[in-house]
Protein: Phasin
Organism: Salinarimonas soli
Amino acid sequence: MTDEKRGYEIPTEMRDFAEKSVEQARKAMDGFIGAAQRAMDTFDGSANPVQTSAVDLSRRSLALAEQNLGAAFEHAQRLVRAKDPAEAMRLQAEFVQSQFQAMQSQMREFGGLMQNAAGQAAKTAQSAAESVTPRGGKKS
């Protein structure tokens, strides 16, 4: 039994099909991301600071989603090329670890962005309240 330790092999046709499928999905997602970015551009002309903060937050969300999707597609392509289940498991473990680290970083970034947006909203609300309240806080 010389073929006993031959190992697990994915047929070339199946590997090619999987690679093409991943590439088609990536192109479709790139088109979707591009359309979403163009939609965001329509909201960019706002002079309202709260709306500007919301648009900035949305833009960053979209950029991070694009980054995460890119990492997922890259991972899928690596998995398709894995020579055996052990390599696939190693690749999966590395991907999970890197995505966990990315998620932690992204959550810290979003915390800061949300804090800035909330601060901007509070300033806007305070300015609006001050503009309708007479000086000295007395009603006339």
Remarks:
- The chain has a mean pLDDT of 82.
